[in-house]
Design a protein that fits this description.
The chain is an alpha+beta fold. The protein folds into 5 domains: about 20-340, Alpha-Beta Barrel (TIM Barrel), CATH 3.20.20; about 345-420; about 425-445 and about 595-730, Jelly Rolls; about 450-590, Sandwich (Jelly Rolls); about 740-820, Jelly Rolls, CATH 2.60.120. Helix content is about 15%, strand content about 30%. It has an 8-stranded parallel β-barrel, surrounded by 4 helices. Strands 19, 32, 35, 37, 39 and 41 form a 6-stranded antiparallel beta sheet that branches. The longest helix is centred in the N-terminal third of the chain and has 20 residues, at about 145-165.
């Protein structure tokens, strides 16, 4: 039994109280140099983690890794369409439980930032708006419209009241220190004219009336009404200045990478440039930096927006889609956070002076009342390295496009271009327990009703898709009939459709005539040869969306489906028959969706074919089902959907999202190397040329049963072959580090693996990069044996790289250590 003296108990309780009050304050104020939390002047490192893009079971690990990475806060949007899918019917269950999410943030000792919006953008379907808004009479979204403002205020108030009831605002002792209303409206406000300006003022008044006790912010809103704080989003915000000189300079979205669309290569933003952006921001007086994203996660279900946003929302974030460390980015930023935090008191209390040293070199010095100093030394030239002599404060090598952080202005503690963190190369492995080839059952999508033109309602015009589906399905059937009395004209005709949908399938008299999709997700023309018969012919068209638009002025008004278009039959000698004003019959969704073929519960009147020697290959509108074993261990699980076309996948009834591995990316525009220097753009440093945009799809462990009783269901829309589908795990394969003398070498595997082999180790002047290291002109001969003695057989190892450790103390010159190992 543990006992403690009375005085020790008091000291212990005071210590606990210190940590609690440091993280959860009764008051949040600010000035131009700091966020002032419970009287303490702070700079804040924050990261975006969207609760619906992971699972409840993943949250604690993601939050802890964010904290370990040096974050002070976690930020998230609130997703209106997920919480209110039907008007006044709310859902805050499972991974929609944002209250639990913020409580876990609080338990981890971190602050929270809540971005209510309620417009989110976020590459999320319809920007986070519920589609039922679109159909409300007289509504205009995101402008001075009473119908919209009433709905927005009701939802915002509900979120605020739920947050207040659970005492999550800092003013109540909770973790939330900032709240956002609207989102990036200033970028498109001009298109709404005076109504847009009036709307912004109303947003501010409505938010302030909520009395939450913490500051409100608006990002990308230069005219944000006081006391709302306007903030900056982008790749770089060093030159941003708030519209009130008393407001803190905040970077609410530092785009740490970029999102990916179907058909596009995988974008990457280097660790060096990411750190450069942050360091330059704090050099220029920054107070809060929020990474967008810190963990991107997965667009489960049909939540991806766009159109054409992929199911993976990895965003090249410091934590990858599965929650693993994305190295070296995570470690490099962690080291930078620690370096800048060394100067937190001086940065938030001191005065700043800038000195132009010429040749794009700038020295920024922060000095407090005691004379203590903290410096940033930047080189903004994107080509030329610099050697800088600061006289009594020392000499420094500052690479091009980098910032050196100087503690006391005379000791280098970090440089954004000098990456000492390990690089982790992830691999996909087929688990020994899950190597058995899947045995598929199948079922063709039931289409008897739609092939006969039978729908739920009719109209003498082509209707807009999202107005009818209310986003309950990607699919809408358009059906009509046409009478033919002269086959000499129509026996070999062309069916021509102008559509705003993203994909379109056509059937004539129950016969499939083909599929086409829009390359860019916008209006396109579908043309197929068809054969018509004498008498009545039934034409059935299936329009599909792949994520509704999420950004831009009046994006909500962008039409989908075969609306405002033309449906024509073109016969011999260009004789044309316009069917646009025919009597059209409509049906929302697939019969397989209606029958819930993806559900594990037995379905009445549903039978699956199980003859494994003759399952259909390359047939559109096919459902597949197979049982599988859960891969052993704890590493993240993915499913490899190579060989499939386009569709949707479910595991044990849980949607893992849309898939489209048949869309191959361009074969050019990729490089094995990435020059981090110069302004970043999403076209820079791409990978994955000539491959499926996305081949592997995340299956969270919590979706799986810990036995052999797991089921995968696929709906294959355009036709594919599931024979190569397999379940795999993601783990760290090769790890590397290229560490400067005097820095810390840290190597670690994941998931209980150990370092099994040191493939390369050289202390001297090694060359190359991870996967292709080479010895330089000199090295310590026993470099590899020294590293092996320290690291082999361990899950992680670390030491400070010094000449003494390698037995060459007294040798002049700067050395480096390069290591490549296997887990």
């Amino acid at each position: 039994m543990f006992t403690m003296a009375h005085s020790s108990w008091i000291e212990f309780l005071l210590l606990i109280s210190f940590f609690i009050t440091r993280c959860f304050a009764g008051e949040v104020t600010y000035d131009s140099n700091a966020l002032i939390i419970n009287g303490e002047r702070r700079i804040i490192f924050s990261g975006a983690v969207h609760y619906p893009r992971s699972t409840v079971e993943m949250w604690p690990d993601i939050i802890q890794k964010a904290k370990d990475g040096g974050l002070d806060a976690i930020e998230t949007y609130i997703f209106w369409n997920r919480h209110e899918p039907v008007r006044r019917q709310y859902d805050f269950s499972g991974n929609l439980d944002f209250i639990k999410f913020f409580k876990l943030i609080q338990e981890a000792g971190l602050y929270g930032i809540i971005r209510i919006g309620p417009y989110a953008c976020a590459e999320w379907n319809y920007g986070g708006f519920p589609v039922w808004l679109h159909n409300m009479p007289g509504i205009e979204l995101r402008t001075d419209n009473s119908v919209y403002k009433n709905e927005m205020q009701i939802f915002t108030t509900k979120i605020v009241e739920m947050t207040k009831e659970t005492k999550l605002f800092a003013s109540q002792g909770g973790p939330i220190i900032l709240a956002q209303i609207e989102n990036e409206y200033g970028d498109i406000m001009w298109k709404y004219g005076d109504a847009g300006k009036a709307y912004v003022k109303w947003c501010a008044q409505m938010a302030l009336a909520q009395n939450i006790g913490v500051p409100w912010i608006m990002c990308q809103q230069r005219d944000a009404p006081q006391p709302i704080i306007n903030t900056c989003n982008g790749y770089y915000c060093k030159n941003f200045q708030p519209n009130n000189p008393k407001s803190p300079k905040m970077f609410t979205e530092n785009w740490i990478g970029w999102f990916q669309k179907w058909g596009e290569r995988v974008p990457h933003r280097s660790a060096e440039d990411s750190a450069y952006s942050v360091a330059r921001f704090f050099q220029e007086g920054g107070v809060l930096n929020n990474y967008y994203m810190y963990h991107g996660g997965t667009n489960f279900g049909r939540t991806a927006g766009g159109p054409y946003i992929t199911t993976s929302y990895e965003y090249d974030a410091p934590l990858d889609e599965y929650g693993n460390l994305n190295q070296p980015k995570w470690g490099h930023l962690k080291q930078m956070h620690a370096a800048i935090k060394l100067g937190e008191k001086i940065l938030t209390n001191g005065t700043r002076t800038d000195k132009d040293l010429g040749n794009a070199i700038k020295l920024t010095t922060y000095t407090d009342a005691t004379g203590a100093r903290f410096c940033f030394l930047s080189n903004t030239d994107d080509k030329t390295d610099a050697n800088v002599d600061l006289q009594q404060d020392g000499k420094y090598f500052v690479p091009a496009w980098s910032v050196t952080i100087l503690d006391g202005c005379n000791k280098e503690v970090f440089n954004t271009a000098k990456v000492n963190s390990q690089t982790s190369v992830k691999v996909k492995k087929i688990d020994d327990d899950a190597t058995t080839k899947l045995t598929w059952a199948w079922k063709m999508e039931p289409k008897k009703d739609t092939m006969h033109g039978s729908g739920s309602f009719k109209a003498h015009k082509l209707l807009e898709q999202k107005e009818l589906t209310l986003d309950a399905s990607d699919y809408l059937w358009y059906m009509t009939s046409v009478d033919i009395n002269d086959t000499s004209i129509w026996s070999n005709a062309t069916l021509r459709v102008d559509t705003m949908g993203h994909t379109l399938h056509g059937y004539v008299n129950k016969r499939y005539v083909g599929y086409k999709f829009s390359q860019w997700g916008s209006k396109f023309t579908y043309e197929k040869q068809v054969s018509l018969k004498n008498g009545t012919n039934i034409i059935t068209l299936l329009s599909a969306t792949v994520g509704l638009p999420n950004y831009g002025a009046r994006f909500d008004e962008i039409k989908t489906g075969i609306t405002d278009g033309v449906v024509q039959l073109i016969g011999k000698n260009n004789v044309t028959m316009d069917l646009s004003t025919n009597l059209w019959s409509y049906k929302v969704g697939l019969n397989g969706e209606r029958k819930r073929l993806y559900d594990l519960k037995p379905r009445t009147n549903v039978s699956w074919y199980t003859n494994s020697s003759s399952y259909p290959i390359g047939k559109p509108m096919t459902w597949y089902k197979a049982n599988f074993k859960s891969p052993s261990g704890t590493n993240p699980v993915v499913i490899d959907l190579q060989g499939l076309g386009k569709g949707h996948a479910w595991v044990n009834g849980h949607s893992i999202g849309r898939y489209w591995p048949s869309w191959i990316t361009a074969s050019n525009g990729c490089s094995d190397t990435c020059d981090y220097r110069g302004n970043y753009a999403k076209e820079k440093c791409n990978t994955n040329c000539g491959n499926p945009s996305q081949r592997w799809y995340h299956v969270p462990r919590s979706f799986l049963n810990n036995n052999d009783n797991n089921t995968i269901v696929l709906f294959e829309e355009i036709g594919g072959n599931p024979q190569n589908v397999s379940f795999q795990t993601v783990t760290t394969g090769m790890i590397c580090a290229h560490v400067n003398e005097g820095a810390q070498l840290d190597l670690s595997c994941q998931g209980g693996q150990v370092i099994s082999q040191i493939q390369f180790a050289s202390f001297g002047n090694p060359k190359g990069r991870c996967g292709s290291f080479k010895k330089g002109s000199w090295e310590v001969i026993n470099s590899q044996s020294i590293v092996e003695a320290t690291c082999l057989g361990k899950s992680s190892c670390g030491f400070t790289v010094t000449k003494e450790m390698f037995g060459i103390a007294g040798v002049n010159g700067i050395a480096k250590l390069a290591v490549q190992a296997l887990c």
